[in-house]
Amino acid sequence: MALHNAAGRLSRHVVRSSASAVRSTASQTLWLPSNAPQKLRSMATVVPPVTQNSAGSKGPTAMVFLNMGGPSTTGEVKDFLSRLFADGDLIPFGRLQSYIGPIIANRRTPKIEKQYAEIGGGSPIRKWSEYQSAEMCKILDEISPETAPHKPYVAFRYADPLTEEMYNKLFEDGFGQGRGGRAVAFTQYPQYSCSTTGSSLNELWKWRHRLEGKTNDPTQGNQDGSITWSVIDRWPAHPGLVKAFAKNIEDKLAEYPEERRKDVVLLYSAHSLPMTVVNRAGDPYPAEVAATVYAVNQRLGFSNQYRLCWQSQVGPQPWLGPQTQTSVEEYIAKGQKDLILIPIAFTSDHIETLYELDKEVIGESGHADTVKRVESLNGSPIFIRALADIAKAHLSENQACSMQMGLRCPGCKSDRCLESKRFFAGQQARL
Ligand SMILES: C=CC1=C(C)c2cc3[nH]c(cc4nc(cc5[nH]c(cc1n2)c(C)c5CCC(=O)O)C(CCC(=O)O)=C4C)c(C)c3C=C
Ligand code: FES
Ligand SMILES: [Fe+2]
User: What is one term from the GO cellular component aspect held by the record (predicted)?
Assistant: First the structure.
């Protein structure tokens, strides 16, 4: 059925954008592997270029950073947790969601409020997201003048600014509502999980549908005056990301005496997933996290031994392991006290780095002088340049999203995933 719809939309698209067809076909060839079957090539969704403005640019282009967000003050913790436990894409309680969600959120609030109080009174995610998106847009204006000006936006899943607020800001700034315009949803999770990026995209699709009507094809934006959306959905092994991580690791390694440096063990740490998600749905996240880890070690010339472990388990169910804290304790028990912790699945500081790693894992290890944590990417100029390079490549490729995004998890039964993938992945949406 998806393929049937795809064919119809593709033919409409080809008729509509004859001027861009040559350019689009070229970018399609770049995006897909050169040996990709013709059937796949013809399925790839191409975002039609927005009409040029008087300055000769196709801009303005809205660059929307998607992330989970965090409470900026302790007073926001309850609302943050309420939204988080109400999200069936993150924690599927089924029909009991609206009953169990608030109970767990309320029960958890005092403990989590204390943790945010101890890291300075709130999560720094908003500050870093606004800084990173604004700085990236400045670079993009220089390296991609054809889509300038680039305007930064942030849409958080569980904290302000929420997706609805971001969408209304787009309207205020002249996008959509009959005026068209192009927006790029840029996930700030380098590795794709249906519980993180998938959830943010499902939410974006929901608000797009509510606020801009029923069109089920993002490439129709220019025709009905709604916003033309495309998505940067994953970038786990982008060389710029890898370089930024490697630089921070090298800086931390340099703090150890030279004679001990090569024997320091690198412990990569990523937010864990419940085993139900790993097994049932076949979530891409564990494999993509491993891809980042391998690429960073490759860039370091495999200078040190390393392991990947998983943190932040919530509740009594089994989660993907080994756990970070246990791994640190066990290495120390084996006599390996020089350890560097590397948060590898998030691009700025948050409660899991500032509280869980710094205060719990390192603080309680008894070896805070030899167990260290690398800086999070935060304001790293190498990282912000990488964001701009990723965005520039996406804008010039004119693709709706990565090829991979069109494929649902084998065990997925969610209508939200189905609808949102049909919308964002367009012709690439399958199964
Ligand atoms: C790549 C990162 C993350 C994945 C994957 C992820 C999955 C995931 N998380 C929960 C439950 C909670 N996460 C919480 C906070 C939190 N989670 C991440 C990142 C990922 N989560 C971050 C960065 C944060 C902190 C935000 C901040 O400080 O600003 C919380 C709230 C804190 C707490 O109560 O412990 C919960 C709950 C699940 C169930 C899950 C996978 C399905
Ligand atoms: S849970 Fe992965 S696509 Fe729906
Ligand atoms: Fe989480």
Answer: mitochondrial inner membrane
CB atoms within 10 A of CB 204: 24
d(CA 129, CA 112): 22
- Ligand 1 centroid distance, CA of 376 (Å): 16
Annotated catalytic residues are 238, 389
ipTM: 0.93
How many whole angstroms from 381 Cα to the centroid of ligand 1?
26
Atom of ligand 1 nearest to the CA of 352: 25
- pLDDT tens digit sequence for 215-274: 656 555 567 889 999 999 999 999 999 999 999 999 999 999 999 999 999 999 999 999
Delineate the domains of the chain, giving CATH numbers in brackets.
Answer: 2-67+125-236+383-428 (3.40.50.1400), 74-118 (no CATH), 239-373 (3.40.50.1400)
Q: Is 31 in the pocket of ligand 1 (CB under 6 A)?
A: no
- Quick: pLDDT tens for 178-188: 898 999 999 99
With a 6 Å cutoff on the Cβ, whether 350 touches ligand 1 is yes
